[in-house]
Every structure is written in structure tokens, then in C-alpha cells.
Write a structure and sequence with these properties.
mainly beta; two-stranded antiparallel sheet; four-stranded mixed β-sheet; 130 residues; Ubiquitin-like (UB roll)
Amino acid sequence: MTERSDESEAGSRPRARASARQLVPNFDKMHGLVPAVVQEYRTHEVLMVAFMNQEAWELTLSTGYAHYFSRSRNAIWKKGETSGHLQEIREVLIDCDDDSVLLLVNQVEGTACHTGNRSCFYRTVYPSAG
């Protein structure tokens, strides 16, 4: 595999770079799925977490738009296809264990959550003191 290291945006750690054909998540570890953490590429705000199967992965890379696998509908969905809140892919990273991915996206039209919130992570839980 051909890789080269570049400084990350923060400049703190080098990042290995490889073509899409060289790095592929291990879909076998979680019965055909991998979690996908989605962040806004400019701010790194966490927008959502979804699942991808091999087909969603390939569609994401080939189209440049985020595709996910709906476990409840048992189907592929293109984020924003009906709402217009598309996620344009800017960068894709695979974790060290090859079992989860990070998508850095341009969130079109501002909201990622089906509730109308920008992020799916808008509710805060505070630990009890003790």
C-alpha cells in the first residue's frame, strides 16, 4: 500500500494518506456495518452518527455525497435526498482498527438532524455529583 504522511490540519500529528481503493473498512466485524461519525469539515462540530454498509461506502466515495444504511428500513439512504440537507464529502478517515469511519462534510442547508437541529447532539446530560 502506498501511503505518505502529511501534517494534519491541527499540525500535531501526521496523517497517512491513501487512495480509496487502498483503505476499506472491515465490514465483517459488525455484521456488515461500520459506524460513521460525521463532522462539519470547517468547525469539526459533530453532526451525527450513522451506519454504513459496503454499498453505502462505495456510493459515498463514488458520488461525493454521504450515503448511509438505515437499520430500521433495511435500506441505503442518501443524506438529504428529500430534505435538501445534503452532506458533501470533504475528507474520509478510517480508524486504526478499520471498524469505524469519520466523514468530514460540508453540511448543505445547515441542518443534519431530522428534528431540524443543526446537530443530532443537541441534548446535554449532566453527571450527578457524588
